[in-house]
Amino acid sequence: FIYGKPDVPKSSVEITSQVCMELAELQRNDDWEAAVQLVVKAGDPKSSGSPPSAFRVPYDSFRKQGDCRIADSSDSADTNTYNDAIKETADSAKLDYEFMCFFLSSDRLDLYRSIDYRCEDMLLGGDSILSEAQWLLDTG
């Protein structure tokens, strides 16, 4: 709660669908820079603070491993499943980095509240970082 509780609108099916269409277009065009700029324009200026290589190296490596497509309920044969992605990862050449990308769509407000509560507990809970720091100070 450093800056107060977040004042963000709840997501809706229409907004989620529109975002998925925009992302699908960017993915078809392999336009990673435009995707980063979309995040920046959406209100996250820190996304552009890292050099492009910080985004490009893992993204390009992941993109080359398999084709992630947005699922269309009428054409499920055209999508990769989680197990397909695992198999492709195992079959692909070794990369400098080992990672998996997951894109989760949920209500932002619920996510932000969860993060706030976890941070508060980390700072003020019984086994918090502050109580550990106090213990370290007391022990000298």
TrEMBL record:
<protein>
    <submittedName>
        <fullName>tRNA dimethylallyltransferase 9-like</fullName>
    </submittedName>
</protein>
<keyword id="KW-0808">Transferase</keyword>
<dbReference type="GO" id="GO:0016740">
    <property type="term" value="F:transferase activity"/>
</dbReference>
